[in-house]
């Protein structure tokens, strides 16, 4: 799949040009988070697309990218006193 030109709306209301870059490979690992109440959450972010902003760079000279992603959360365990009885 080739790069695809797109328009990106900014929070300021301005629109900038960009190129949507196909994702060749993505490794999305889970992070386990243990809360003080004893609950263990498993979270990860899945990247849906990456768009390089045309003609813009960060402070170190790297091209500027916008990433579309979705968070995924799973409850691995929680203490019995926090659970509701299921019938």
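^ Assign residues to that structure.
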């Amino acid at each position: 799949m080739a790069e695809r030109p797109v328009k990106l709306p900014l929070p300021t209301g301005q629109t900038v040009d960009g190129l949507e870059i196909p994702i060749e490979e993505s490794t999305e690992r889970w992070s386990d988070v243990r809360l003080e109440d004893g609950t263990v959450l498993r979270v990860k972010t899945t990247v849906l697309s990456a768009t390089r902003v045309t003609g813009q760079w960060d402070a170190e000279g790297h091209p500027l990218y916008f990433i579309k992603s979705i968070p995924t959360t799973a409850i691995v365990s929680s203490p019995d006193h926090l659970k509701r009885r299921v019938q």
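Residues 4-79 form one domain.
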